[in-house]
Amino acid sequence: MAYKIAVIPGDGIGPEVVREGIKVLGAVGQKRGISFDYETFDWGGDRYLATGEVMPKDAVEIMKGFDAIFLGAVGHPDVKAGIIEHQLLLGLRFGLDQYINLRPVKLYPNVDTPLKDKGPDDIDYIVVRENTEDMYVGTGGFTHKGTPMEVATQVANYTYAGVERCVRYAFELAMTRPRKKLTLVDKSNVLTYGHDLWQRVFKQVGAEFPEVTQDHAYVDACCMWMVKNPEWFDVIVTTNMFGDIITDLGAMTQGGMGIAASGNINPKGVSMFEPIHGSAPKYTGKNVINPLATINAAAMMLDFLGEKQAAQDVERAIIAALQSGKIPHLGAGAIATDACGDLVAGLV
User: Fold this and answer.
1) Same domain membership, residue 172 and residue 204
2) Is residue 104, in this structure, part of any structural domain at all?
3) 132 and 98 in contact (C-beta within 8 Å)?
4) CA–CA distance, 3 with 96 (Å, rounded to integer)
5) What is the mean pLDDT of residues 269-287?
6) Does 21 lie in the same domain as 86?
7) In this predicted model, what pLDDT tens digit does every residue of 216-249 receive, in sequence order?
8) Calpha distance 252→153 (Å, rounded)
9) Are residues 345 and 281 in the same domain?
10) If you average pLDDT over residues 152-180, what whole number do you get?
11) Torsion of CA 317, 13, 71, 31, to 10 degrees
12) Spatial separation of the C-alpha atoms in residues 78 and 259, rounded to whole Å
């Protein structure tokens, strides 16, 4: 099988870690008879500084011609924070209707967690974050800006269609896992309009999935349980804003930004896969960043493309690499970037 992959290396360490992800994809492709046709795009901070645009106006249409997008990292020290993220990340997520942000929280063997007495059997769940609504839509504004009477509003938008498709995706995902448990995380005791909609949709869709154990947690309680009893969770479904926050907490419990990956999913369209870490400009070009999060993102991409065995091959290779003793920790300098990619590729 052949796949067309759009590669956006991005900024900082992005090109270095993407290179290693492609290396591992090549190894598993050779093993499983899969080929990849890559096209690389220079979208990001350097392009913005040179041209005044992060990506071209027809970027979304261009991306529709690919099977998936493989993204490195975004963020440039000479570009104001938010410009690249808004134009590239949100531009592609919204433009390609990638309405699910999928974030596995899984502790691998030989990886340290800050949670006392917790191990891989305790930390293994997935967060399904709604990805195109909430306050990220950008509805709001200022009145009397810059005066003592200033009023700033930022509106959280939720639609029935947007909530329903996210919740349904989460129930369907829960059905594929052995525990078949789904937890809705919201703040419906305070956000009594928007999150009341989430409550009603969760109950309505849940009636179609009697096999799934259905649970609920307020977001503040969820944060406590993610630290104290992460084994309680199997699949979590939540809003865009809350998902943005709790998934970074989850990433730290699974070993940090060096291992955590993310998928921006349109189940019937073009999806985008990336490590959750930033561009780490101070390490650019030094060959010291661990690329495992990007390799994990490559495994997620394979799974989305229907190459389940290849995805499992890559995950097993990551675990074997972590158990090899050659990666003492996940931080910068533990192993050379290219050496880590070689190690995982050799274990596929």
Assistant:
1) yes
2) no
3) yes
4) 18
5) 96
6) yes
7) 999 999 999 999 999 999 999 999 999 999 999 9
8) 32
9) yes
10) 97
11) -30
12) 27
Are 278 and 262 contacting, i.e. CB atoms less than 8 angstroms apart? no
pTM above 0.85, yes or no: yes
pLDDT of residue 191: 96
- Cross-strand bridge partners of residue 235: 126, 182
Q: Are 292 and 340 in contact (CB under 8 A)?
A: yes
One domain for residues 329 and 209 = no
Distances (CA, A) of 236 to 171, 215, 222, 230, 341: 10, 9, 10, 11, 31
Question: Please, are residues 252 and 114 in contact by the beta-carbon 8 Å criterion?
Answer: yes
What's the domain range around 285? 1-98+259-348
Q: Name the one residue in this structure whose structure tokens are 């189940």.
A: 267
Q: How far apart are CA 294 and CA 282, in angstroms?
A: 18
Identify the CATH number of the domain in which residue 250 sits: 3.40.718.10
Q: Both 199 and 296 in a single domain?
A: no
The confidence score (pLDDT) of residue 226 equals: 98
- Inter-CA distances, 245 with 223, 239, 250, Å: 9, 10, 9
Residue 82 has what pLDDT? 87
Distance of CA 70 to the CA centre of its chain: 12
Report, as residue numbers or ranges, the catalytic residues: 136, 187, 220, 244, 248
* Residue 230 DSSP one-character state: G
Q: In this structure, what DSSP letter does residue 35 have?
A: E
Distance CA(287)–CA(274), nearest Å, equals 19
What sign results for the dihedral spanned by CA atoms 311, 317, 323, 327?
Answer: negative
Q: Are residues 74 and 167 in the same domain?
A: no
Q: Distance between CA atoms of 193 and 190, rounded to whole angstroms? A: 9
